TrEMBL record:
It is found in: Cell membrane. The keyword Membrane applies. This is Gluconate transporter. The chain crosses the membrane at residues 28-46, 58-76, 96-129, 136-154, 174-194, 223-242, 254-279, 291-311, 337-365, 377-400, 412-433. It comes from the Bacteria. The keyword Membrane applies. It is a multi-pass membrane protein. Its main location: membrane.
Amino acid sequence: MPLIIAVLGILLLFLLIAKFKLNAFISFIIVCLFVGIFQGMELGNLVQSIQRGIGNTLGFLVLILGLGAMLGKLVADSGAAQQITTQLVAKFGVKHVQWAMVVTGFIVGIPMFYSVGFVILIPLVFTVAFSTGLPLLYVGLPMLTSLSVTHGYLPPHPAPTAIAAMFNADIGKTLMYGLIVAVPAIIVAGPLFARTLKKIEAKPLKEFYNAEPIPEEELPSTAVSILTALSPIIFIGVGIAAEQFLEEGTLRNILAFIGNPVIALLISVLIAIYSLGLAKGKEMSTIMDSLSASVSSITMILLIIAGAGALKEVLIDSQVSDYIADSLKGSSISPLVLAWLIATAIRVSVGSATVAGLTAAGIVLPLASGTGTSPELMVLAIGSGSLMLSHVNDTGFWMFKEYFNLSVKETLSSWTVMETLVGIMGLLGVLAINSII
């Protein structure tokens, strides 16, 4: 019965979001009540479980996502993203322009939410394609692959960070494994796959192509742009290295503290306020207004993640998760593959990668501790599955279609295949790392 209730709860979530277009946060809370009541939870305990799930989830993530949004906004508004793209294309040359776009998408994608990075970089893709005479998808798809992979695999992005928190996975180790898995996934789904799409003639919509770039003299330098955008990764990497290679002592503790994701992002935002704001002559009040706008833009993302955290807590407190874990313990399927399959199924049904990842995490949470599987690899397996088979119920699908002026069929044969390649390569990378460690 607990398994049936869980399945019905997930189906209800699908219906509320996909069929009735109800807000995802409200849908999660309704499903929490459905699962808890039919599992026989006392009503007072059910409400407390929902509150506890929301509190435990947001307690860590508000800091990460808030600071990440601020850094992304500063990188975008200052023209740092534009500078990174311009200089990398100049350095790589026309022959290797795909790799310039891959690196651009990766650098900009680390601190920036997918939709924001998409909108910021698309005019630059159009400009590069026009100036080089290369096909639009040949230039643009590698960059979007990088953005997608950083969104699905790597902290400090919402879903992987939230899932890591659920599994008590080490953020630094998740990031390290994620980078290893990300590189081959990007290469296969980006530059290599894009070379097979020469028959699809994408055309930029006029209103997007005419987006005015920031004048060159107002842009921050290339070094400042890249170092500021990558500063969270640099600080987190320093912390990982300190914990791995330094003996216990004051220096190790200080460097590990700096490498904590929250502290790394805080320091990065402070650096960006100066390097991309004050140093360029901007008023502090203007910079702060920009930061306020960045946080307001992620409010709904936070609520959706909070709702998923509440569902996770209800599944645990009502003992549904324990029942599912016990049922699956005898299964011959690897927990990593199982997590990937569940995330894939939810992604196909709901469309949202974030909702798919968080919901799948709540379902398979007990498997990590029950089977001894690496929690960091479980995060990456779920993240990979959550990117699979993007189609008409995914907002990313429609953004790609409209910006590149494609038909639905052309979008399915380009965007959907790219996302699926990313998901498959992610699983293969996770299984490869698991066989080594």
